[in-house]
Design goal:
Strand order of the largest sheet: 4-3-2-5-6
Mean pLDDT: 83
Low-confidence stretches: none
Number of strands: 7
CATH superfamily of the largest domain: Ribonuclease H-like superfamily/Ribonuclease H
CATH architecture of the largest domain: 2-Layer Sandwich
Radius of gyration: 19 Å
Shape: globular
Helix content: 25-40%
Distance between the termini: 31 Å
Length: 252
């Protein structure tokens, strides 16, 4: 699916709809579907911003999502029984991407070895003054989710035996903010809450690692992509088509 149209949408796009109900009902149903279809998370998050002022352009974009889903209705997350308890996560941020507010978009996804178990695409609550700050907020959000997952696993009597590996493609966010206290004097305008990323790294909950943008699996949660890159990203998520003959033969 080509998501490039989604990045151009704003509250001023198109002509206002006379009746908002059909748009709101459609987005509500699609929001529920994102619980099992992470591939539409970015588009639906974007479209849900316009529930109070939908236009024909927003509705047209929502119909594009429906056409995409019609082309792959049986696609879903595959949980392998061979997975161990190694948690890895990818976090990313797209700086000042919202045309209406200039807020950045946070995206992160967690894997239990090769199975995707948690993901998030959300607009940040405040405007970031730099791309490094936007990435650091994404790190903080992912760290909070990592803490929660570690508590859940402990309650299930399967505590983590090693640090959660966190992959981030912004080197300055890792080295200047999360691991090197010398640079903290330059970032006092960032709320103290966001220093949780560094604290949890020092405590051993997370292990920060750089990753190239081409291998950033959370990229699809933060920005629009053309059909080619989008297809490549989805193929890395571990989503499988239950109607695929090769998969069914493998199960039997």
């Amino acid at each position: 699916m080509d998501y490039t149209y989604a990045s151009k949408l704003s509250k001023e796009s198109g002509t206002a709809l006379q009746d908002h109900t059909p748009y709101r009902q459609l987005i509500g149903r699609l929001l529920y579907l994102t619980n099992t279809r992470p591939d539409i998370s970015y588009a639906i998050r974007k479209l849900s911003q316009f529930l109070d002022c939908p236009t024909d352009a927003h509705m047209h974009a929502a119909y594009k999502v429906l056409r995409y889903l019609k082309g792959c209705p049986s696609l879903g997350i595959f949980f392998s029984s061979a997975n161990d308890l190694k948690l890895t996560r990818f976090c990313d941020a797209d700086w000042a991407t919202c045309a209406d507010t200039r807020r950045s978009i946070t995206g992160h996804c967690f894997y239990l070895r090769n199975s995707l178990i948690s993901w998030k695409s959300k607009k940040q609550s405040t405007v970031a003054r730099s791309s490094s700050e936007a990435e650091y907020r994404a790190l903080a959000s992912a760290t909070c989710q990592a803490q929660w997952l570690s508590f859940v696993m402990k309650d299930l009597s399967v505590p983590l035996t090693e640090s959660i590996t966190l992959f981030c493609d912004k080197h300055s966010a890792i080295h200047h903010l999360a691991t090197n206290p010398i640079f903290h004097e330059r970032t006092k305008h960032i709320e103290v809450d966001y220093h949780i990323a560094r604290n949890q790294h020092l405590l051993g909950l997370t292990h920060l690692m750089p990753v190239s943008s081409n291998n950033q699996l959370a990229d699809f949660l933060t920005k629009a992509s053309a059909s080619g890159p989008f297809t490549v990203n989805v193929s890395k998520l571990g989503l499988l088509d239950i109607h695929n003959l090769s998969l069914r033969e493998g199960v039997t």
